[in-house]
Amino acid sequence: MRIEKEQIEQHNNRLAAKHKRAFDYISEDISEVESIINKLQQFQIAIPSWALGTGGTRFGRFSGKGEPGNLEQKIEDVGLLHALNRSSGAISLHIPWDIPQNAEQIKSLASSYGLQFDAVNSNTFQDQEGQEHSYKFGSLHHVDPKVRKQAVQHNIDVINHGIALGSKALTVWLADGSSFPGQLNFREAFQNTLESLKEIYAHLPEDWKLFVEYKAFEPHFYSMTIGDWGQSLLLATKLGSKAYTLVDLGHHLPNANIEQIVSLLLMEGKLGGFHFNDSKYADDDLTAGSIKPYQLFLIFNELVEGMDASGLDHATGLGWMIDASHNLKDPLVDLLQSVDAIMIAYAQALLVDRVALKEAQRDNDIVKAQQILQDAFRTDLRAIVAEARLRDGAALDPIGLYNELSVREELIKERGDNTVATGL
Ligand code: AOS
Ligand code: ZN
Ligand code: ZN
């Protein structure tokens, strides 16, 4: 299924008058409105292939329907999202779940939807069919060099798939850790991981980045070998200039100050990319902005400040990606909600009066500083985000149009009750 230009135009025409009233009202008081719209138009958030199917929990999985059964259909799904919002112009693949049989065909299919290939993700957290050694006790950190070698080779294969598709980054997330004290020698586990990553790093093309993702706990509950941003930064620093830390919002211990982590990683030039999601407890992988929208705004506030300070382009300076997986909502609707929440938080961060904030900080005027941030956060910028979509030829109300066009019903007609188990 494809969404046609005319269908979007008809939808937008119906909402045009209402949108114009809201847009005129809000933009009157914002002098830099054009520059904010421009930046929103540039900003793209990659969609992970594993978020397109209904996620599961270890207790059960309630299947959706009309879900993509192969890579072509996953690309079609992201194409639909991108047509609706023009902000989801990339897909992030997961090997071996998404092995492209014919890279050229896959590439041209993606570009027919205006999509690029974001970071490729390796998977050494599950045993694959026909694999010689098991990852039960870890992969890159494993005590047995034969297991490490197998995991390194898998990552090299993933890089090669990525090269064929035009990806520019490899994301490594490891389930390596221990669940009982004494199970691991921490130093050896770290050293083994570093040595394995060095071998992978040696195969990275010149213009590629390696993203080292950390996670505080789960699947292991005593230690994770790359458990926090310190361990990730240590590895990225030892590896070299193409290695960076990747921040997944759900991978911290409760109440961690993620915005401060982001700020310092940017200062060190070592923040590489982002996995957006939201959570109340841990790695809940809920819709971005659904639980802690103020935190999302504060993170974007640091991103904008830090990227401007180091001269990084907002759209291309970091890898932006969603990492979420649910079992209650239609995954496509959920992704539209996530992208919208991210855009709103970004727009609000762009609205912050940086000069006034700097002054307030210099004067130790904490009341003023707090007010500046909260003023921006409490401004309803939905019409500005919608205007950016309108100018890009996307829908004023993406979820509204998704429902008007009965997209899910159409997909069920095309694909049947197909449902796939993906995601972690
Ligand atoms: C796992 O918790 C991490 O968030 C990974 O980034 C990701 O979910 C995984 O690689 C996808 O299976
Ligand atoms: Zn992640
Ligand atoms: Zn996660």
TrEMBL record:
GO molecular function: isomerase activity; metal ion binding
Record-annotated Xylose isomerase-like TIM barrel domain positions: 100-285
Pfam families the record matches: AP_endonuc_2
Domain of life from the UniProt record: Bacteria
UniProt entry keywords in alphabetical sequence: Isomerase, Manganese, Metal-binding
Protein name per its UniProtKB record: Sugar isomerase
Source organism: Sphingobacterium zhuxiongii
